[in-house]
Design goal:
- The chain is of the alpha/beta class.
- The chain folds into 2 domains: 351 residues, no CATH class; 253 residues, 3-Layer(aba) Sandwich (Rossmann fold).
- The chain contains 26 helices and 9 strands.
- The termini are far apart.
Length: 632
């Protein structure tokens, strides 16, 4: 295809937005929409290549895939390899293990699926993932695999004119699907191909259905398109349901710029835009690890400007010395494609990363006490399987070990997951089972409607299910009270968190009371946990600090007991001063995790957490033991 300066300039606008957003999201709150601009451009270019070859009857899927591989893989493989080398020197074993997993996902172009299963794009933990940004490359590659194969297959049965109409229909269906899935499952819609494909197909429609405009109309259409893209960058934010309906704004804006075909525009054709657009892919690759480095090494804000400049410099070098390498494009037979160098890059980097993951970041080379602490600072093996991030009918909730004698249930947010597992293991010895209901970040929402919280429908249906199941007679209730009620994070330690009590806070507490009273009326026992003490940072980092400073692992302090009481003062006083029925029993985690002075991360050699606020399985065993103290 002929080189188009306007497309190259669009790339520059997109990459600048993404980079600025990642380094400081207050600068360009909707800068993540730059990825959507890239998707539209990719769809335009890919559709042009595919249809031109379909028209000439010489579309070879292998050649198409190889051309994409030559373009994408070398720079990505270099980045992954460099991170693996640096990770050996700077990362702790658990961090190196996670990097190996993410490199394997990125070089195998399934990282969007990996991150979809782990957490959301805007979560705080995203700054611990060195290759999070490669999710978009995986989406594009999956599109590159399926799209030409589908078009080639359909071209065998229908004319190219009808094929274009099919593409138009698929784009409309894809957009509707995107809106529906974004409403019901935001994480799914953000990361997966089926809700992003419409953006690339719309770019394809810009190629298939071009329009001829005079200079005035072309200029106006371009300005409208640029204005829509910039509007998205400025007025949207991570709170905007995405992609969904709102993604139409930057996507249609990009479409308008493509349709205007303004090759001499000062906006897109100036020298700065052209240079940045040329280097945009490599800039995109290198900028995110630099963002993560700022957080990982706790660098001050001045490094933001240095690293932005470094992103551009590395992008330039990567483009000049890696992207422009002319790899072999023609092979005499299908089998000869195995000689393609990008394929070998994928295999070598992928196998190296997989080996690092398999060896748990070479944990076996660490001292014995560090190994023990790291190996036992683990979540429930059922966490990914049983914990919800989106609505699911209570009938499908996990049942542990004995599904024929389910007498127990846990109802809560993510703080209940390890408790559910540890409790179920104990109950297994008594031939009793447990049903686990947990929803990520769920605030107390009993009796509330959908506009109160994302989990309100699930919460109320789960309570109804538990009440109506006569076999279930023992209920465990727990929430991350301080965070869910008044906000704040233990990262503010040793200063007090903001615990301002609002009307909504009072309403949540009322919801907790209503829930407890309702369950107590219908069930034999209701166990309610006081807040679990929280750490000032991830336990693995605390363990790492001890490892680096050659300190013992028998006891690692977290926060002071006094700070724990102050931080959770509102809910503790409420529980202490409320009158509940006799079948309501309160469990106080600080009795297992704290002494009169300190709340611990590791106590008596046992890691009590697997991150900064969730109990480990070993920690949960201690909490469950508190529930049965009166029976011993």
């Amino acid at each position: 295809m002929n080189f188009r300066k306007d497309i190259n300039g669009l790339r520059a606008i997109a990459v600048v937005a993404v980079v600025l957003f990642h380094f400081n999201d207050s600068w360009v709150p909707g800068g993540f929409a730059g990825v959507d601009v890239f998707f539209v451009i990719s769809g335009f270019l890919m559709t042009g290549i595919i249809f031109k070859r379909l028209e000439s009857g010489n579309l070879s899927l292998l050649q198409f895939y190889l051309a994409r591989a030559n373009r994408i893989i070398p720079a990505l493989a270099l980045l992954c390899f460099v991170l693996l080398i640096l990770g050996w020197f700077y990362l702790l074993p658990y961090e190196y293990e996670k990097l190996g997993k993410h490199v394997a996902g990125s070089i195998g172009f399934i990282s969007n699926i990996v991150y979809w299963k782990e957490s959301g794009y805007f979560d705080a933990s995203s700054h611990e993932k060195w290759l999070l940004h490669t999710w978009s490359l995986s989406v594009e590659w999956q599109f590159y695999i399926i799209y030409p194969a589908l078009l080639l297959f359909l071209s065998k049965f229908i004319s190219l004119s009808n094929l274009k109409r099919c593409l138009l229909l698929l784009t409309v269906i894809g957009f509707i699907l995107c809106i529906v899935v974004t409403y019901h499952s935001p994480r799914t819609s953000y990361f997966l191909l089926h809700t992003r494909a419409w953006e690339m197909m719309l770019g394809g429609l810009a190629f298939l259905y071009p329009i001829t405009l005079n200079k005035t109309h072309s200029r106006l259409l371009e300005l409208l398109g640029i204005a829509l893209v910039i509007y998205a960058y400025i007025f949207f934010s991570e709170k905007t349901p995405w992609p969904g309906f709102y993604a139409f704004v930057p996507v249609i804006g990009t479409y308008f710029v493509l349709m205007s075909q303004r090759g001499n525009s000062i906006i897109t054709s100036n020298v700065v835009s052209q240079k940045l657009g040329t280097w945009s892919y490599s800039i995109y690759l290198w900028h995110w690890p630099l963002v993560v480095a700022i957080y990982y090494f706790s660098l001050n804000e001045s490094f933001i400007f240095v690293f932005i400049a470094l992103s551009i410099a590395l992008g330039f070098l990567s483009h000049k010395y890696v992207e422009q390498i002319n790899f072999t494009k023609n092979f005499p037979s299908s089998i000869s494609y195995i000689k393609a160098k990008p394929l070998w890059m994928v295999m070598i980097v992928g196998l190296l990363a997989s080996f690092i993951f398999y060896k748990e970041g070479f944990l076996h080379l660490a001292p014995e006490d560090y190994r023990y602490a790291s190996e036992h600072a683990k979540p429930s093996p059922y966490r990914d399987k049983c914990h919800l991030h989106e609505y699911q009918s209570p009938e499908h909730a996990c049942e542990y070990f004995n599904d024929k004698n389910v007498e127990w249930a846990t109802l809560a947010d993510s703080h209940s997951i390890e408790i559910a597992y540890a409790l179920a293991e104990r109950l297994q010895k008594e031939d009793s089972g447990l049903k686990h209901f947990s929803f990520s970040g769920c605030v107390p929402s009993f009796t509330e409607s959908d506009d109160f919280s994302a989990c309100a429908k699930w919460y109320n249906e789960s309570v109804d299910y538990i009440v109506n199941d006569t076999k279930i007679q023992n209920i465990v209730v727990i929430h991350r009270y301080t965070s869910q009620l008044v906000g704040g994070s233990a990262e503010s330690y040793p200063n007090n968190s903001d615990t301002k009590i609002t009307d909504k806070t009072k309403r949540k507490v009322e919801n907790i009371d209503s829930l407890i009273m309702h369950l107590a009326k219908h069930k034999r026992n209701v166990f309610v946990f006081y807040p679990i003490p929280e750490l000032p940072q991830d336990i693995n980092k605390l363990i790492g600090n001890n490892y680096n400073n050659k300190l013992p692992f028998e006891r690692i302090e977290g926060t002071s007991f006094e700070w724990y009481k102050t931080r959770n003062e509102h809910i503790i006083q409420h529980f202490d001063n409320s009158n509940y029925p006799d079948n309501v029993q309160f469990i106080k985690p600080h009795e297992a995790f704290c002494d009169s002075i300190t709340c611990f991360a590791i106590k008596d050699g046992i890691p009590l957490y697997f991150d900064d606020d969730h109990a480990s399985v070993k920690g949960a065993e201690k909490l469950v033991k508190l529930m049965f103290l009166g029976q011993q």
